[in-house]
Structures are given as C-alpha cells and as structure tokens.
Amino acid sequence: MSFDREHGLALLFAAVLLAEILLISQTVDAYQLVMNGRAQGLLAAFGYLGQVAKWLVLSAVIAGLLLQSRWQAYFQRASAQFCWRRCMTIGGVHAVCYGFLFYLSWLIFGGTTAQAQSLGLVPLIAWLLAACATFVSWLLMLVSAQEVKRFVWREGVMLVAALLIAAVVWWLATLSANLWGPMADATFSLAAFWLQLLGAADIYIDPADKIMGAGDFFVHVANACSGYEGIGLVLAFTSVYLWVHRQEFRFPQALLLFPLGALCIWLLNSLRISLLVLLGAYVSPDVAVGGFHSQAGWLSFIATSVGLLWLAGKITFFNQSDVPVPASQAAIPPNNTNSEQAVATLIPVVVLLAATLVTSSLSAGFDYLYPIRLCAVLVALCWVWRALALPKLTLSWLPVLAGLVVAVLWGVMLGDTSVGDKRVQDGLDGLSPALALAWLACRFVGSVVTVPIAEELAFRGYLLCKFSRSESYVTGPIPFVLTGMAISSLAFGALHGAWLAGTVAGLFYGLVRWRSDSIWPSIVAHSVTNAALFIFAVAAGRWGLL
Is the peptide bond before 371 cis (omega within 30 degrees of 0)? Predict the structure, then answer.
C-alpha cells in the first residue's frame, strides 16, 4: 500500500467521526432538558452536553495552534502506520459502540423529560461509557495504541493547557455577556444621536425600553445589538492578518489596529441602527427588516476590514515599507508576479460579497437583484483573468465524486428548508414566467460558474496556499498543512449561513486541491456540488438549498 493511499484512507476514516457526530446532533437535542427546566440530577447535567462538545472543539483548535509546528510530523507518521486490517477489525467494534450510543441518545433525548427522568442512572452511565468507547475505537482505527500513548506522554502538558485555555476563553465569553447592558446603552444613545443628526421627522426615542423609531416604524435595540459580534469579527480578522503578514509590520505599533478596528465597527453599527429606522419609516419596512437588518452588519464588517487593510498598507507608522533594503538584495529586481496573482485571487470574492450584501439589503426576502450580482462577478473575473494565469482545465473523476458527496452532505446537514423554500417560491410566483425563467437561468450560471470560481480562488487559491506556505496560488502541488486546511475550511464555513455544512464542504474542496496540481479540480468539485443542488432544488421545490 503506497503512502498516498494510506494518507487518503486515514483522512477518509478521520471523517467518519465527524459524520457520526453530525448524525446524532441532527437527530436529538440535549439542550431541551435545560430549556424545560424539569430535569434533575445527572440528567440535568446531560442537557449541557452540547456546551461540553463546543468546549472540546475549541480545545482541539487551541491544541492545533499550540502544536502547529509538530502536527505535520505526527500526521505523516500516523498515515505511514495506517493498517487496513487493524482498521477493519476495530471498525466492527466501533460500529457496535456507535450503534449503542445512537440508541441510548435516542432513548434519553428522543422523548419527554419525564420519560428520560424515569430511566434512572443506568442509561446515563451507559451513554458515557458508550461515548468513550466510540471515541477510543475510532482513534484506534487510525493509529496504534502505542502511538496514542507516545503522543499523550509527549504532548500531555500541551493538551491540558489547551483544555484550560479553552475553559478560560469560554468563561470570559460568558462573563462578557454581563457587559452587553452598558454597551447596549451606549450603542442606543449613539444611534439616537445619528437619527437626530440625519434630520428625521417624528422621531420617537425611549431610552428606558431601548425603543426608537420614526413615523409609524419602531425598533427595539436589544442587548445583542450592542455590537459585540462585529467587534469580535474585526478583532479575529485583524489577528489573522497581522499574524500572516507579521514580517511586514512594526510592533507594537501595529497593535493599535485592534482598538481602531473595534471603534470603527462600533460606530458603523450604531449608524446601521439609525439607517434601519429611516429605511423602515420612509422607504419600506419589509426591506428594512428582511434585507438591510441582516446584511448591513456584514457591509460594515467588510468596510472596516478593507479600511484597516488600506490603513495598514499606506501608513508607515504601522508597516516597514520605509525600512532600507540591504545592498545584497537591492540588486535583485523584485518579482511582483505572486503579489499580483494574490490580489487577483481575492478581487472576485470581494466583489461577490459586496454585491451579495448590497442586493440582499435592498430586497425583502427574495433577491430579485441576483442578476446584478452575477454581472458584477463576471466583470471582476474578466478584469483579473490575465493576472491569474490559470493553467489549462483538465477533468478527472475525483472532483466530480467529491462534489456529489458534498451535495448529499449539504442536503442532509441543512435539514428543514421550508422557510427558504417558501420565500423563493413566493418570489418566483410574483414574477412573470419569462422573468422567472431568466432569474433561474442567472441563478444557475452564478451557482455553477461565477460563485465556484470566485470562492475557490479566494479560499483554496489564496488562503489555503498562504497557510500551506505554497509559492503559487493556482498551479502546482501544495503540501498538506493541517493549519492551512483548517483555517481555509472554517473561513469558508463562516462565509455561508450553514457554517457547519460550509466547513465540511471546505474540507472536501481543500483535499481535492491538495490531491491536484492546480485550482481547477476544486473549482470543478464546487461546481458539481452547486449544479447537483440546483437540479434537485428545481425538481423537488427545495429552493432553500440554493
């Protein structure tokens, strides 16, 4: 068995655990035990299993960051030692353990709280044992017990540190919720100031209940509208950007970008609330609530992020552009090909995001302006096509198979799409047959052509290659770097409303790119996924899948 085949099998079986977790999480909901408040004893603690799972995922991410310099060696050794016979033998035990775990999950969480309470302690303890046995048997399918013992012995301190750091981060996140009240008060006051400054008539402002409005349109500024989410996104974006380009910046001066970004996004958030009131009062309440309310926040985030990038690149206080170049390097003419190609891989997705947010914010539910989005991305692709220097397209079975698998997983993980189905169907019913057909044609071209190209250039072209330390963004093989695969997939998932399904899709497309010599196979896989989903959506009326 060759190393490449072992590598692929290890990755395939590593995906088994993710699929099993998704199946249970989509079937039962443990948090209902907390919501109804009638669970007692150990059963009440079981209601927080979802929170424990999130803590463990956060711990795994932190452990990945702490051990990023050594993960590659561990992964290669585990892949080289992968044994098909051991995997099949232990796989049978794993299937039995998982089947028992699934049955107990359905037994405990599938009925009412009273039914679960009557089961006693034995099923709960059995569930814990089955969960541990499922994880251990899955782990032993991939690596030997000796290799697991060696890893825990060498990296035990780091693993414990990751668990503790994740716990502290979780505690701080919970503690920060207590600050939402004061932050919401400040946000409300600033939004009221913007509303008055913009000269709106018939303004109504109630600081006690945090209600403001104009005319006959009113909104309640809840604590969640205080702007913490936007501030968190900007801080995370700035952290990643400074880390990736750390050699280009001056420290500690560059750290001032953090408070500048937080202040900017907070000011834009308060302005968003005031504009929401004006839009609902004088233009359309449906557009204000259905489109602008959800999309203006992303517009603010993009504007702030782009502004920080421009500021960091133009002002020498933050960067090292004025640092003299050594004489040994001055004689070497700079090669700007890679930098131009990097910018070219990002421009289409930036245009796509901007066009999406603008058209969505001007629509109430159904995006009538989707053709504008399609045209904008087409223009962007034509503009950067020469700089991309893409190789010739060649087809193979791998991207087609991966695309079909992602389409199936996407449909399963999205679950109920009835709300989206009705929204699109009502929008199509409101158009004439000719306009509805034209809209669907534009949506098909966008889903199968422009969107896959724009998104794959950004996530598998720029981001994955950047974190995988590849010299080229669109051609040539790339090394397997766990950090690059994880970051690019998580970022891809964050871009989509269904973040978990998006992250899984990003992993598949990333693996296709890793197994290929250019960006084209991942684009083809993405196109196959969207084409399959589009055909199924049209045939079954599942418009929410689009």
Answer: no
Distance between CA 245 and CA 226 in Å, rounded? Answer: 31
Q: What does the angle CA 393 – CA 399 – CA 404 come to, to the nearest 5 degrees?
A: 135
Are 523 and 452 within 8 A, CB to CB? yes
What's the pLDDT tens digit per position in 159-204? 888 888 878 777 766 666 566 667 777 888 888 888 888 776 778 8
pTM of the model: 0.59
Taking each helix axis from N to C end, the angle separating 397-414 and 3-27, rounded to the nearest 10 degrees, works out to 20
Q: Is 150 exposed, middle or buried (0-12, 13-18, 19+ CB in 10 A)?
A: middle
> Rounded CA gap, 288 and 290, in Å?
6
Calculate mean pLDDT across residues 402-421: 83
Inter-axis angle of helices 482-495 and 499-514, nearest 10: 140
List the Cα angle 534/536/542 in 5-degree steps. 90
Residues whose CB is less than 8 angstroms from the CB of residue 514 and which lie 6 or more positions away in sequence, other chains included: 477, 478, 480, 485
Which phi-psi region, left, alpha or beta, contains residue 202 (left: φ > 0; alpha: ψ -120 to 50)?
Answer: left
Q: Dihedral sign for Cα 494, 499, 500, 506, please.
A: negative
Please tell me the distance from the alpha carbon of residue 353 to that of residue 162, in angstroms, as a whole number: 34
What angle is formed at CA 264 by the lines to CA 261 and CA 267, rounded to 5 degrees? 150
